[in-house]
Amino acid sequence: MKLAFLLFALVALSECLHKIPLKKGKTAREVLQEQGLWEEFRKKHPYNPMVKFTSNSAGTEQMTNDADLSYYGVISIGNPPQSFTVIFDTGSSNLWVPSIYCSSPACSNHAKFNPKGSSSFKFTSESVAIQYGTGSMTGVLGYDTVEVGGIIVPNQIFGLSETEADFMYYMKADGILGLAFPSISSSGATPVFDNMMSQTLVSQSLFSVYLSRNSEEGSVVIFGGIDPSYFTGTIFWLPLTSETYWQISMDSVTINGNIVACAGGCQAIVDTGTSLIVGPSTDIANINSWVGALTDEYGDVTVTCSNIQRMPNVTFSLNGYTFEIPASAYVSQSSSSCSVGFGYGGTEQLWILGDVFIRQYYAIFDRGNNQVGLALGV
């Protein structure tokens, strides 16, 4: 009876959820490969995912040039509304989009916000700077109405870019909507979800993410609740160890019962804004060895496509619960090769559970109780 009541309550809540469809589009890597520019590009811009989380610069929110991000959704800003495609990024906290004042090539093929076209826009005298692995976004802050999945957020502070890193030219997204905590927000700008909560625009102080595994359609970000149609079985709740990023405790990583990484425990961040599962380079090298992968001079990891069916599951133990990632989830197959989704993070003793992990597990980000919920995705 209790279970039936709980399911009824979840279904009832799902009817008033605010869903933003995400499209799985071409990645920057795919665009560059099509244009024959990938080899030269990655020489100049090596993948450095950990820079996003290890900045020592006060007031600077670090991000990275992830060439494999592929999930984007649409928001609007201003009155009348101007539409933008953004990455919903749980690993950062600022909202920013290109502006008509941007002089960088990266802005030339993206939508640009025009303050003069909005009757509700208000300038500030504050600047904003967000450092990437290979450059930065700089700009100014302003206030305007932001619409996300039918939720109208008045007087939302956001960044209007004036310069952007070169790699953004090759990305589908116009900008970023950060969903981490206010404590890491550049220039102290209040994040969008914090305004949703403080203005009681959502029924619950949480949001959730479902990333489809094979289809370009079907992925969503859901504000204000949990939709049981996107997962099966139990939701496992993991308490946060830091109210900055969505950081949790990881006990170990095992393959066939053998500890292959994170021996003795470590910390992990659940991040929709990183495409791979990233960890300390020595641990990642061990995992890739166990699954039979080879790493080239640029850090790209590949396997023989015909071996996928024989490759082992990789098991992540988080706060006493186990979460398996099968080879079908951590190997990505293209027309020419098969790449492995375990990325090298350098010497930093920190893990990022990015899209490779989240595609397998429906992820719930609960600000009300400072916890992450994970359930097996459908």
Automatic annotation (TrEMBL):
Domain Peptidase A1: 71-375
Pfam family, one: Asp
Residues of the active site: D89, D271
EC number: 3.4.23.1
Record keywords: Aspartyl protease, Digestion, Disulfide bond, Hydrolase, Protease, Signal
Annotated S-S bridges: C102-C107, C262-C266, C305-C338
Signal sequence, renumbered to the chain: 1-16
Enzyme class: hydrolase
BP GO annotations: digestion; proteolysis
A GO term, aspect molecular function: aspartic-type endopeptidase activity
PANTHER family tied to this protein: BETA-SITE APP-CLEAVING ENZYME, ISOFORM A-RELATED, PEPSIN A-3-RELATED
Family membership noted in the UniProt record: Belongs to the peptidase A1 family.
Known function: Shows particularly broad specificity; although bonds involving phenylalanine and leucine are preferred, many others are also cleaved to some extent.
Protein name: pepsin A
Organism, as annotated: Paramormyrops kingsleyae
